[in-house]
Sequence to fold (388 residues):
Amino acid sequence: MKQEARAGDSSKILQSIPALINKIFPIPARFRSALPSNIAELSRLLTNNRGERALSYMGRPNFLSAYLHYFLPWNLYRLCLLLPKLELNLSPGDVITDLGCGPLTFTSALWISRPDLRNTPLEFNCVDRSSPALDAGKKFFNALCSTVEKDCPWKIHFIHGDIDIRKRDSARKRKSASLVCAINIFNEVYERLPHSNTEGLKRIAQDCAKFMHNEAANGASFLTVEPGVPQSGRFISFLRTAFMELERLPIAPCTHASTCPLLPKQSGKQRWCHFAFNTAETPNELRRLSAAAGIPKERLVFSFLHAGAASNNEKTPKEEKIRIISDAFPLPDNLFGRYGCSAQGLVLLTGSKNRIDKLTSLGCLAASMYAITGEYDKKSGACILELL
Fold:
């Protein structure tokens, strides 16, 4: 995990994001009152009623405005929780390809949350099918960089084009990348797939992995972030397997390269790998806007996979670790629990509410922090561990 350099600077910039967006993308007073309802409608189209959403929704001024004022800042906060914790290993001159970049969400989040990279010359291929989103992203990123005195040495190529995972030769049109990103994009591919169609989801994951693989240079890494819902978690598990078949081993959140214990099964209650954080430190203005739209956020939730070349990521840790992959939940006998992932499979960490609450989503536990009880959870089959 990467140490969080100048975290205070990043937090200050994040707090200023709503005001910066209001300045760059002002909404006339006569249209301001419609913003919450536009946010609610776009949220509905992006979740429960995706079948009604046109591919060109970002080209509609009211939806683009709703996205910029609401979804962009929330997505920035979500990514800024994750990116400082990843070993991205980027060097001067490296190329980053961001598939479905939208208004440069990943690039902006990287700039905000990784001050150690701001002076590193990097080249970005930012690909999206929406020209208005790309134009807005360019305007937003330039304004974001102007919040600090130094010029940003990052070179950004804006590429207008669709992401078709079935066309695996599309990568030949641009430089091979050291990091290939796909942030909240693949769910648009599998969103209409019945949840019971695990073979279909597996095939989509294989296509996605091969598409990203063909964008990458030797020794590259890959980052995929998806919504923290069960179907996305299942997709991430299949994507992990698909990358391993391409000799790209999991780096995070996995602490091992063994079989994923959360791969979808034919029967039984399914668990999925996801991470949740509270929103207490987000700006009050953004939370008020969420409440006005009728979709208040108390947590930021996502599933993700960071994978890389086998030669660079040997999974032989000196001490086996367990990654926390779920929220806390109550158990019988006044106990609480969280699920964890290990090389030995799924585990259930148990303890008092106070002890379980001290564990952090995405955190790791060393062997000295728990005891093996020898019992197994009847619902999940997970090995039960007791926190020490």
